Amino acid sequence: xxxxxxxxxxxxxxxxxxxxxxxxxxxxxxxxxxxxxxxxxxxxxxxxxxxxxxxxxxxxxxxxxxxxxxxxxxxxxxxxxxxxxxxxxxxxxxxxxxxxxxxxxxxxxxxxxxxxxxxxxxxxxxxxxxxxxxxxxxxxxxxxxxxxxxxxxxxxxxxxxxxxxxxxxx
Length: 170
What we know:
alpha+beta; Aminopeptidase; seven-stranded mixed beta sheet; 7 strands
């Protein structure tokens, strides 16, 4: 992480007072990137920060004094976990406010997730799922040492395995 960015970026568990910011950042990022459209049913899941926060850790990244990014952390056997196995930390719904994209915030957030995982007892890897079309995200993950795990790829409906799993051993 660059020294300039590091000095301006901080992380905290989102509180109820932060949920609107988490919701705004997540929805804006997914819509702006074209991952979903206004009618997509996944928007309801992305918007339901309250429910996520009941059973997973929802984190907020503040950059230069304001909410800029968000991510959810979960582990094996937890309600929002999709692919984490024992001793793996999974991150989901990583989002950076479109107004702050291009400043290295997303990279810094993933580096922070890796550092956080290293500090947790019993965690030996970080995993995530990324849609097959999210090529820029794949380049970021691979540049940070994540490896594709095609044998763990999956889909929501059991057809084409278009949800790719990436893993970073710690």
